[in-house]
Amino acid sequence: MSRSAHPAGPRHADVLPEGHYSAPPVDLNALDPKVWAKSVSRGEDGAITVAGVRASELAEAHGTPAYVLDEADFRARCRAWREAFGADADVFYAGKAFLSRAVVRWLAEEGLNVDVCSGGELATALAGGMPPERIALHGNNKSVAEITRAVEAGVGRIVIDSFQEIERVAAVARRHGVRQRVQIRVTVGVEAHTHEFIATAHEDQKFGLGLADGSAAEAARRVLRHGEDLELIGLHSHIGSQIFDLAGFEVSARRVVGLLSAIRDEHGVELPEIDLGGGLGIAYTSDDDPREPHEIGKSLAEIVAKECEAAGLGLPRLSVEPGRAIVGPGAFTLYEVGTVKPLSGLRTYVSVDGGMSDNIRTALYDAEYTAVLASRTSAAPPMLARVVGKHCESGDIVVRDAYLPADVAPGDLLAVPATGAYCRSMASNYNHTPRPPVIAVADGVAREIVRRETEEDLLRLDLG
Ligand code: LLP
User: Can you name the CATH fold of 86-325?
Assistant: First the structure.
């Protein structure tokens, strides 16, 4: 299993055992298309270009660190998901991976819906012009204020996560005189991460209503009793993140259809929709082999069709919620090297002008990334480096083990690919660091879609 995909928590050993590293890449200047956005290549002067714009121009115009997002890559992945699932399914982009008004516009234009899990994400989806009926609201502890805003806006679905929420959503819907469309989030007893999945005993978590202990079936009873205020449109399941093995989705699909069938038997109601969540993995390094949207589309459609036929159910409308697989591969983070510290016999620490405030995933999940020189090529031999940030914490690591050319020097630009998902959206102001901008590039034109935060922005929150 690639370590990039392992969300098991931080590793504390500073020096990895002998032989743990993979061999250095043959060509340190190469850009593996697996991990780079579709419009990225090296220009004649060796600098990275994205959609025809040189990384060094981006750094000059917008500063570093910066997230650089290839709009064509994002749109192409949206289309691949739409095509993989076809007209009888809905693709909800998971806004938690990264959301901005521009992204919402692209999603709306490409025919995707959006799933939001907070009032802030809901506000962004609405401000970006997503029609409310194409928005789903998630969350295990939505506030009454969030539920109220969603109902008032007319969102297409609220995914119910607890018994208490059934009463809350019903009360808000009643007050507003609407019949709110809802799904029930079912904890199907499958947990999947990376290449592995486990199909027992993973109901021990905060999300959803358990299948095994009857909570999900009881929730369906209660929602159906609120029939005047709530319209139960279907069941929802999300089994994990960064998944490469489709077997977990298949077990989940089977179990969700099993509950559809039990609900039909008990209530005589065939729920018209099922949502199988997000979680499809992407390549963070060349060792990762993600599955393509059409593979997951085909596999899920087949399983659902087969299970429904066996249960004598009509085919429900299917939906999925990819986040990382749409926005992750299309962006890279551009940094400037500030200091280089060789440690004889160990490694060289290369410090960049960002760090755990713009990418917490390495520290939090032991995620693996790669890095390349972005402002030039180099013929220098490979050097084992650790790319670290500028924060006051020794765990402030961006890339734990990176092979970089041995002549990397202060002033060089470094680019870390596959940072589109869960980097800007999980960014922090640690050490009072303003968060980097997001620059969208398309057809030779770069535009900040999220501007860089400033120290004034931060001081404005400080009331003295
Ligand atoms: N739907 C639901 C209900 C979810 O909870 C999630 C992710 C998704 C869809 C989208 O999953 P995706 O396709 O993006 O994997 N911060 C972590 C990931 C947390 C994911 C939480 N839920 C990371 O950086 O890896």
Answer: TIM Barrel (3.20.20)
